[in-house]
Amino acid sequence: MQRVKRRVLLICSHHLFGESLETILRRVDDMELLGPMELSQENIHARLFELRPDAVIVVDEGENRMNVSSLTSAILQQFPSLPVISAGLEQNIFRVFSAHTLPARSSDFVEAILNLPPSNPWEAAQPGFQPKPKP
Predict the structure, then answer these.
(1) Predicted local distance difference test score (pLDDT) of residue 111
(2) Per-residue confidence in pLDDT tens, the chain, 135 aa
(3) Closest by Cα among 64, 81, 20, 78 to 36
(4) Measuring CA to CA, how many Å separate 104 from each of 57, 74, 111, 116?
(5) Backbone angles phi, psi at 60, to 5 degrees
(6) CA 22 to CA 34: how far, in whole Å?
(7) DSSP H helical segments within 3-43, as ranges?
(8) Can you tell me whether residue 126 is helix, strand or coil?
(9) In which region does residue 125 sit, left (phi positive, over 0), alpha (psi from -120 to 50) or beta (all else)?
(10) Residue 1 DSSP code
(11) Which of 68, 18, 70, 79 is nearest to 45 (CA)?
């Protein structure tokens, strides 16, 4: 039985890092790489609907961090079931984001908050982070 290839869209602003990831991802037999696309592409939502990827990888560098956050948020709002994977040059980690849509009743809202995973978000926080002002 043949496995279905995962369609993955690569969006990046840093060409060398993007090329490195592209080289790695194109070698995976069970993956169809779409892109890379520029991070600043205006019609990203139309392209997502047209390409219909199974996941989106957004590669950022320090100066584009706020653009990546906005793009990730916008993708998850329009396509809540589409996983977004964020990778960067500053840390040797990647993050996987997905949205969870829940009913908007007050009891469900309170229950969702009380049932959040028992992790401490402040352990990994970076003190002193200040977003750069836009020119």
Answers:
(1) 76
(2) 567 889 999 988 767 777 888 888 888 888 999 988 876 656 788 888 899 999 998 887 656 555 778 888 888 888 888 999 988 767 677 888 887 766 666 666 777 777 777 776 667 666 655 555 555
(3) 20
(4) 30, 20, 11, 16
(5) -125, 165
(6) 9
(7) 15-26
(8) coil
(9) beta
(10) -
(11) 79
H or E segment to which residue 85 belongs: strand 84-88
* Tokens matching residue 38: 């520029």
Is 130 buried (19+), middle (13-18) or exposed (0-12) by CB count in 10 A? exposed
Place of tokens 């978000």: 121
How far apart, in whole angstroms, are the C-alpha atoms of residue 70 and residue 111? 28
DSSP β-bridge partners for residue 88: 60
For the purposes of burial, counting CB atoms within 10 Å of the CB of 117, is it exposed (0-12), middle (13-18) or buried (19 or more)?
A: exposed
CA angle 25/79/13 to nearest 5° reads 45
- Paired tokens of 59: 């590669």
Is this prediction's pTM over 0.85?
A: no
